[in-house]
Amino acid sequence: MYRMAAFVLLLASLAPARSLQLEDYYRIESVSATAISPDGHSVVWVRNSISEAENQRHTELWMSPSDGSTPAVRLTNPEFNATAPRWSPDGKLLAFQSARKGEGDTWFLRMDQAGGEAFRIPGVGGAPIFSPDNRWIAFRKKTPPKLKPSEPSPFEKELEQRFKGRVYDWMNIRLDGRGYLPDPRDPAATPPLELYMVARAGGTPRQLTDLAVDVRSAAWRPDSRALALIADSHQRDEYSYERADLWVIDLEGKIQRLTDDGYEHDSPVWMPDGQSLVFRRQQGLNQIIQARQNHGAAVDLYRMPAAGGPLTNLTADWDLIPESPVCQGQFVYFSADIGGDIHLFRKAAAGGGVEQITKGERLLGGFSFSEAAGRMAYTAADAQHPAEAFAARVDGSDETKLSALNASSLKDLELSPATRIRFPSADGAEVEGWMVLPRAAQTPYPLILSIHGGPHGSFSSAFSFEFQWLAANGFAVIYINPRGSTGYGEKFLWATWGGWGKLDYQDVMAGVDYALSHYPIDRKRLGVSGYSYGGFLTNWIITQTNRFSAAVTGAGISNWLSDYGTADIPRTKESEFYGTPWDQESSERMRALSPITHAANIKTPTLFIHGEADRRVPIEEAEQMYTALKKLRVPAKFIRYPGNFHVGWPPWDMVHRYYYELEWWQKYLQ
C-alpha cells in the first residue's frame, strides 16, 4: 500500500504543467500594503483577491510573525473589505479602514489581547494619525461651513425636485472615477477636510485647523505637541493648479505657514530631534505653463528647519523620482523607480550620496518600518510571481517571505519568464524592455507590441496576467519603456514634451526591430496594443506605418483638440503641448500630433476598447477613430463597457476584454 501511494505521488510530481487559462484571472491573489509592528515582531498585510460570483475585488488583513516562523492568520471579518492597516506607537491598537453597514469607515483591533472584535473609538472621524506619546489621535474630516444656506421656498423645492438635469457655472466639472462634480469653489458644496484631534480613548474631537481647504496630510512632531501638514490655500481658485504648501500647527491651534513659493509640497516627515522637516517638493504646474517650459518639474526631497528658514535639497544630484520619505535615525528612506524595477533607497540627512538598499529584478512597494527593531516590511513581485509580503532588516539583509498566496494556484501553471532587453533607438538612445516568449508554440512566433499608459509611467518587472495569458496562447509579447517613461532620469522622462508620437514612436519601433533580429518572430504577424497613453500611441502608430497586421486600442486619444475640452485634465495639453487650442502655435501642434489627422494612412484592422464613463479619455475619442476606419473600409470593432471609468474595471469586464482581445489577435495574427 505504501509503495502504491508513493508511486501515485511520483506520477503527480511528474505531471506536465498546464497552460494559463482565462479563468485563472479570478484565482490570482496579491499583497498590496504592509504594516510592521513597533517592536518589529509582527507584520500586518493586505490580502487582495477576487470574488468571481459577486464580480468584486476583496481585501482582508492578515498577520504574520516577521521571522515567518508560523503561518499567517486572518485578522478581519471576511464579510467586509479591510485596508490601510496602521499600528499605534505602543503596539496595542491596530487601525484600519472598512465600510461596515453605514457605521463608519475607521475601525480598531486590540493587539495586546487575544481575539476580540473590531470596534470604533468615539470621536474618531477619519483615518487615525496616532501621536507618538499615545495620548492623541489626529484625523481629517469633511467640515461644512457653520453658516447654513437660506431655506428655499416650497415652490423652489418643487422646482428642483422636478429638474433632472445639471447646472454648472464652474470650470472643473468632471473627474474620472467620480463623474460630474459639485462646485469646488464653494465650501458648502465641497466641504474641506479639516484637521481634528481627540483623546486616544475617545471623546469629543477638537477642530485644529480652519483653512476652508483640504488638509491633505499631517504628521506628528516627535514630542506630540505639534503637527506638520500640507494644504493648498489656492484650492478654491479653479484657475490654479496644485501648489500645496507646508504648515505647522500646535495643539492650541496656532498655525505657521512655512512655504509660499508656488511650488508643490507633499509627504512631510519629522527628523527625530523635531527640529527639522523632510518633504517632497517640485515646481508648481502654473509656473511651468506660464513659462512654456519644454520639460516638467524635477521632484526632490528637501529639508528645512521646522521654525522656517532655508531649504536644503537632499537629492539635487540624484536623477530619479523619490517617493514619500520615512526618517529613521539620521537616515531618510524612500522608494523609487529605477529602470523597470522599484527599490528602496536612503540618504543621510546630514549629507552624502543616495544609497540603494534593495536589489534584484523585481517591484517592491508598501514599505513600513519599525525604528526600534531596525526592521521593515514590504511587498515584492516579479514577472512570474504576483506581490507577496516580505520582511527584512532596514539594510535589506535577512529577507523573509511572509506570504504564499499563490503557491497552489501557480504550482501547476506553465508561466513564461520575462527577459530584460536593451537596445539602441534610431538616435542611439538606450531603451529598455522585456520579451515574453510562448512555451508551446511553433516558430516563428506572432509578436504583440504592448505600450504602457502615462506616458510618465513605466512597465516593470511585475507579474502581468495579460502578458502571461497571451504567451499561453502562442503569442510573443514585447513591452518597452520608451522615452517619457519614469525610472531613467529626467532627460529621458521629458523627451516627449511637445512631441508625443515622435521619439517614443522611434523607441517602440526600434524594439520591434530588435525582437525581429534576436528572436524567431514572424514579421508578417505583428500586432500593437496599448491603453490610455498606450492607446494614443497605438492610434498614432497605425497612422504612421502599415507593418502591423492588427491593433487593439484601449481608451486612446485620437484628437487633442477635442480632448482638451472634454477630458478632466486639460493641464496635459496646456503643459506638454505648450498652450490651448485657441493659441495658434499650440493648436497646430495638437492637430499635427493627433492620430485622426493622419487617419487616411490607416490599413491596420483595429479593435477599440473603452469605458463609457471614462472622463480621463472620453469615449468620443474612440468614436472618432472608429468612424474614420469604417469610412476608410478598414476592419474595425468597438467594445463599449457601460459605467466603467478610465481605471478600476470590475473583474467580469476585464475577463471579457481579455477574451475578445485574444479573439482579435487570433483572427488577424494566426
Describe it for me?
- The chain has 670 residues and is of the alpha+beta class.
- The protein has 13 helices and 37 strands.
- It has an eight-stranded mixed β-sheet with strand order 30-31-33-32-34-35-36-37, sandwiched between helices.
- The radius of gyration is 26 Å and the shape is globular.
Average pLDDT taken over every residue: 94
Shape: globular
Distance between the termini: 50 Å
Describe the sheet with the most strands.
8 strands, mixed
Estimated structural class: alpha+beta
Topology:
Blueprint (H helix, E strand, L loop, with lengths): L1 H13 L15 E7 L5 E10 L4 E10 L7 E2 L8 E5 L5 E5 L8 E5 L18 E2 L5 E7 L11 H9 L11 E2 L3 E2 L12 E7 L6 E2 L7 E6 L5 E6 L13 E6 L4 E3 L5 E8 L5 E8 L1 H7 L8 E6 L6 E2 L12 E3 L2 E8 L2 E8 L5 E3 L6 E8 L4 E8 L2 E9 L6 E2 L5 H4 L7 E7 L5 E7 L8 E7 L13 H8 L3 E6 L8 H4 L9 H16 L2 E11 L1 H12 L5 E5 L5 H7 L4 H6 L7 H9 L13 E6 L8 H12 L4 E6 L9 H19 L1
Parallel strand pairs: 32-33, 32-34, 34-35, 35-36, 36-37
Antiparallel strand pairs: 1-2, 2-3, 3-4, 5-6, 6-7, 8-9, 9-12, 10-11, 12-13, 14-15, 15-16, 16-17, 18-19, 19-20, 20-21, 22-23, 23-24, 24-25, 26-27, 27-28, 28-29, 30-31, 31-33
List keywords for this structure.
13 helices; 19% helix; 37 strands; alpha+beta; four-stranded antiparallel beta sheet; 670 residues
